[in-house]
């Protein structure tokens, strides 16, 4: 046991050493210098964010804020894969939309409660992620991305052809039901705080995964996979577990979104949806915890408010994305963190 413990300690030290030349080294060093200040700062930021989220439905349209939360969770799930494991997936819409269909069908046709319906959708995404991940992680780089895109397109055509999905009409008029048979989710405030709770749980899972030894191994794989292999880690298992976890959280977001809008449609499983979550993550800051939340809020806000104007929404969002890439090369949150760290 002592030998094993010693070996594990050596591996952990090796993983930390492998991250010495990484981009987040500066942040890690700063955290070691000022742990108390950073902890207090993070607690203040999270506290302010939670207060804003609790008060948001009294200031903004609740459905709009719920949409932001669903896509923020979707982006956080995607960021876990690309930001911390270095795996670029172009097929995450399959998990998001697949869970939306299963959740909508369970709630409308089978008459199940919202919590059970969402869990079924999430379970479907986990199984789908296991199947996709087992095939995709055998390749790297652009080949990995192309495999996920191809598999996602298969899900899209199945959603288009299968009878229970409703084809181009999708599944409409999905009942929100009663949470645990008691809380009526047809009330906007009840539904909002349910969605907020789902988001906080999903975000906490991502935070815990990133700040665990599992997350450290993922970062080592992202920076230098051969070195992680040389330290004795079976990187395929870690990548597959990250893929399944990311798919499950994306499914949680998709199932919740189906209940919010009472609709599951082909839009949820298109390749454009996969590209949209990539945009949200890169815009906010890949590899940061709050970056995907900020990116999702910006994209959803632009889409919602520009839709009422005559301006071409994709062109405007594309222009903003180009400007952000030129000015904020690490994403908005990533650039702010880097500049704050240098001071």
- Helical proportion? over 70%
- Name the helix and strand elements from N-terminus to C-terminus, one letter apiece: HHHHHHHEEEHHHEHHHH
Count, helices: 14
Gross morphology is globular
Low-confidence stretches: 1-10, 12-32
Helix/strand structural class:
mainly alpha
Can you characterise this structure?
- With 343 residues, the chain is mainly alpha-helical.
- It has helices at 2-18, 25-33, 35-55, 62-82, 93-108, 114-136, 141-161, 188-210, 213-230, 235-261, 271-284, 291-306, 313-327, 332-342, and strands at residues 171-172, 178-179, 183-184, 263-264.
- The strands form 2 sheets. It has a two-stranded antiparallel sheet with strand order 1-4. The protein has a two-stranded antiparallel ribbon with strand order 2-3.
- Helix 8 (188-210) packs antiparallel against helix 10.
- The longest helix has 27 residues, at 235-261.
- The N and C termini lie far apart (45 Å).
- The relative contact order is 0.17.
- Residues 1-10 and 12-32 have low confidence and may be disordered.
């Amino acid at each position: 046991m002592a030998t094993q413990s010693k070996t594990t300690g050596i591996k952990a030290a090796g993983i930390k050493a492998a991250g010495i030349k990484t981009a987040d080294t500066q942040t890690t060093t700063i955290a070691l210098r000022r742990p108390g200040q950073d902890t207090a700062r993070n607690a203040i930021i999270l506290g302010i964010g939670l207060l804003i989220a609790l008060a948001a439905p009294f200031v903004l349209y609740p459905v709009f804020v719920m949409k932001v939360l669903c896509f923020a969770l979707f982006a956080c799930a995607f960021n876990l894969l690309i930001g911390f494991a270095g795996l670029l997936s172009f097929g995450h819409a399959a998990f998001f939309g697949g869970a939306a269909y299963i959740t909508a069908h369970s709630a409308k046709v089978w008459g199940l409660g919202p919590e059970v319906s969402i869990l079924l959708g999430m379970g479907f995404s986990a199984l789908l992620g296991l199947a996709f991940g087992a095939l995709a992680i055998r390749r790297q780089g652009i080949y990995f991305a192309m495999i996920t895109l191809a598999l996602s397109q298969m899900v899209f055509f199945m959603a288009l052809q299968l009878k229970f999905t409703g084809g181009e009409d999708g599944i409409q008029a999905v009942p929100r039901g009663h949470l645990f048979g008691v809380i009526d989710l047809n009330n906007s405030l009840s539904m909002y705080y349910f969605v907020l709770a789902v988001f906080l749980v999903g975000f906490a899972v991502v935070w815990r995964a990133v700040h665990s030894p599992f997350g450290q191994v993922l970062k080592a794989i992202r920076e230098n996979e051969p070195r992680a292999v040389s330290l004795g880690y079976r990187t395929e298992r870690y990548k597959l577990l990250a893929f399944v976890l990311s798919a499950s959280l994306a499914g949680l977001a998709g199932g919740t979104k189906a209940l919010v809008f009472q609709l599951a449609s082909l839009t949820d499983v298109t390749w454009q949806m996969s590209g949209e979550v990539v945009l949200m993550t890169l815009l906010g800051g890949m590899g940061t915890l709050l970056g995907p939340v900020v990116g999702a809020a910006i994209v959803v806000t632009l889409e919602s408010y520009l839709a009422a104007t005559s301006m071409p929404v994709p062109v405007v969002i594309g222009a903003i994305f180009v400007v952000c890439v030129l000015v904020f090369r690490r994403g908005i949150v990533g650039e702010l963190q880097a500049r704050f760290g240098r001071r």
